Amino acid sequence: MNDWRASNGGDEWSGLMARAQDGDAASYRLLLMAITPYLRAIAARHHRELRDAEDSVQEILLTVHAIRHTYDPGRPFKPWLVAIARRRVIDRLRAQGRRRARETFLTPEHETFAAPGTNLYEADFDARALTVAVAQLPDSQRKAVTMLKLEEKSLNEAAAATGMSVAALKVSTHRAVKNLRKLMGRTSENE
Fold first, then answer.
1. Burial class (CB in 10 A: 0-12, 13-18, 19+), 88
2. Range of the domain at 80
3. What does the alpha-carbon distance between residue 112 and residue 126 come to, in Å, rounded to a whole number?
């Protein structure tokens, strides 16, 4: 048998694939080792980044593995392999093109900062007024907002402690926040 690393593939690769189809694992391993450098060369012609070329090679090898039963040993192996390789490379390039078309690269002008009015640590924030307002809430709303917002418990922890369902806690918290805004004299732009 000629050197299985032969750059032209040809009959060696066809023979290895035919034996691999018959269940010869050693021939299949040799075939994969022999075609990988060839596939890297094909992928490198189409990709700028080495990692993209390697990803394409892996996709090609996975496809060859998945459809190896479709190879006809009576036909040349290299054109069958090249057709698969080109399709996988083109698929990857199309996916990259779609992804790049949707991406927006951020520049320093895109950075945003929270408006000072959104911070709770402003000078006009009155913790005592919040305590008074929370005390005025109905019992279920007071429990929900205290546990979820002030004590920062999870929904499951608060549900276990109060005996309320997660859905009921969510509703009570929403209503509590809405009532607190009214009680403290603040309105939300969303309401």
1. buried
2. 10-102
3. 27
What is the rounded distance in angstroms from the CA atom of residue 137 to the CA atom of residue 102? 47
The contacts of residue 159 (CB under 8 Å, 6+ apart) are 165, 166, 169
* Judgement on whether residues 78 and 50 belong to the same structural domain of the protein: yes
165 contacts 159 by C-beta, under 8 angstroms: yes
Query: Distance from CA of residue 125 to its chain's centroid?
Result: 40
Does a structural domain hold residue 19? yes
pLDDT for 134-188, tens place per residue? 899 999 999 999 998 888 899 899 999 989 999 999 999 999 999 988 888 764 4
Instruction: With H, G, I as helix, E, B as strand and everything else as coil, classify residue 168.
Output: helix
Question: Residue 110: is it exposed, middle or buried by C-beta count within 10 angstroms (0-12/13-18/19+)?
Answer: exposed
Tokens of 131: 């305590």
As a whole number of angstroms, the distance between CA 98 and CA 87 comes to 16
Rounded to two decimals, what is the model's pTM?
A: 0.50
Helix axes 77-102, 25-46, angle to 10 degrees: 50
